[in-house]
Design the sequence.
């Protein structure tokens, strides 16, 4: 059964770069029918799609975050990663990774990891 | 950019009620719409994809309809486990904008 697990620092200082990794187990990240994405949820608020990537390296971004986001994939490790630069308190959120099927949408999610931006 | 507008933001209902949540897209997304259920402290759970296809294991009291710009999620007879927050999401062209969410509360 496919599982996704987010990892990374839980505390990031303002103006620094947030870095998270999603490790995929129980299946291959190199599937032509799926792509891989990051979503976040600030405390008490709704879901916000951040970016997605295919195993080939093709990337797709939320226009409101594009200037600060880097998303990458490492097929040898079955992982994909997120970097968000110049963070502020507004970037404090639970960050989720998810698999998106071209037909099915976001059908498998990680458990989420909380990132707090604070000095 | 595609914008998704979900209504209502809060819905109060009783066990056994039939409820409907609406999601509107700012442009046509064909049937590229998913519905999710989220409970506090948990990741969202996919309920419906491609507008109306029930994800495996999801109870049949959930149904989705619509295409183009107007979509609905209907729960035919609310069960205690259904009180949660629901989100729509478009996934046309590899984007993934979510609606604002609908919190379904017990009346």
Sequence:
């Amino acid at each position: 059964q496919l599982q996704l697990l987010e990892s990374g620092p839980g505390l990031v200082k303002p103006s620094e770069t947030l870095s998270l990794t999603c490790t995929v187990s129980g299946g291959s990240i190199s599937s032509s029918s799926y792509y891989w994405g990051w979503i976040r949820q600030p405390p008490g608020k709704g879901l916000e799609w951040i970016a997605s990537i295919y195993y080939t390296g093709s990337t797709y971004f939320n226009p409101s975050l594009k200037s600060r986001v880097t998303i990458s994939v490492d097929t040898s490790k079955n992982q994909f990663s997120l970097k968000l630069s110049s963070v502020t308190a507004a970037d404090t959120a639970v960050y989720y990774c998810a698999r998106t099927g071209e037909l099915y949408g976001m059908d498998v999610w990680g458990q989420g990891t909380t990132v707090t931006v604070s000095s | 950019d595609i914008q998704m507008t979900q209504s209502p933001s809060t819905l109060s209902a009783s066990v056994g009620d039939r409820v409907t949540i609406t999601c509107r897209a700012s442009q046509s997304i064909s049937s590229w719409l998913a519905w999710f259920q989220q409970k506090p402290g948990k990741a969202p759970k996919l309920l419906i994809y491609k507008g109306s296809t029930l994800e495996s294991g999801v109870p049949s009291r959930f149904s989705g309809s619509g295409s183009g710009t107007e979509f609905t999620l209907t729960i035919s007879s609310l069960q205690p486990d259904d009180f949660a927050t629901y989100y729509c999401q478009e996934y046309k062209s590899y984007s993934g904008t979510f609606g604002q969410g609908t919190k379904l509360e017990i009346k």
User: Anything to note?
Assistant: Chain A has no helices and eleven strands. The two ends of chain A are 39 Å apart (CA to CA). Chain A has a mean pLDDT of 96.
